[in-house]
Amino acid sequence: MALCALLLGGCASLAPPAAQRTHSGRFAASVQRGGEGESFSGRFTLMIFDAGLVLDLASPLGNTLARIEVDGSGARLTGPQADGTLATWRGDSADALAASVLGFGLPVAGLPDWIDGRAAPGRPARIEPEAGPAQRIEQDGWVIAIDERFADFGTPRRLTLSRDDPGPPPAVLRLRLALDPPSPEASSQ
Predict the structure, then answer these.
(1) pTM of the full predicted structure?
(2) What is the pLDDT of residue 1?
(3) What is the pLDDT of residues 138-169, one digit of tens each?
C-alpha cells in the first residue's frame, strides 16, 4: 500500500545537493509475495558524500517517488503520500526505514560500493571470482550480479540485485540497474 501511495502521489520535485560522486541511470524493481507481485521502474540518482548519501528515485515521467538521505544523524525517507503531500520518515538505518515505510528493504547501505563493483568494507562478503573484477557479490543478504561493464571504464554498467526477504510476509526482491556512462570528471577520481 505504501508503495502504491509513493508511485501514485509522485508529483513533487526535490532539489539535489552537490555531491563528491554521483551515479545515475534507470532501475526496474519487482517484489513477489506469495502469488502476488508488484513492479515499478524509473530513474535513480545516487549522490555520495564523505558523511553520507542521497538516493533519489523518480518515475519514468520524472516525478519524485522517494528521496532517501543518510548522514551521521541517521536516515530520512521523503516521499509523496496518497493525497500528493510530502511526508518524511526518520530511522536509524536507511535499509530498515525503507522496509518499514515501503514494506520491503532496499539495499541502500551497500549500494555506493556495489555500484562501483566492490563489496562494502567492514562487513562479511563473498566475492566471485576471488581475483580480478568481481562478477558476483554476496553481502548483507543481497546477491549482486554484475551483468555488464563499461568497456571504456571497466566499471559496472548493468547490475541485478536480488534478495529473499524472510518477511513477514516472505518476499523475493529483484532490482535491476542500468547505469549512465560515468562523466569524464568521475572517471578521473
Answers:
(1) 0.83
(2) 39
(3) 999 999 999 999 998 889 999 999 998 777 77
Given a contact cutoff of 8 angstroms between Cβ atoms, the answer to whether 79 and 67 are in contact is: yes
> Which of 37, 78, 55, 61 has its CA nearest to residue 177?
55
Domains and CATH numbers, the chain: 2-12+26-187 (2.50.20.10)
The Cα–Cα gap between 14 and 111 comes to: 21
Q: Which residue has the cell 513477514?
A: 168
Compute the distance between CA of residue 16 and CA of residue 95 in angstroms, rounded to an integer: 21
158-166: long-range pairs with CB below 8 Å, 24+: 159/114, 159/115, 161/107, 161/114, 163/105, 163/107, 165/104, 165/105, 165/141
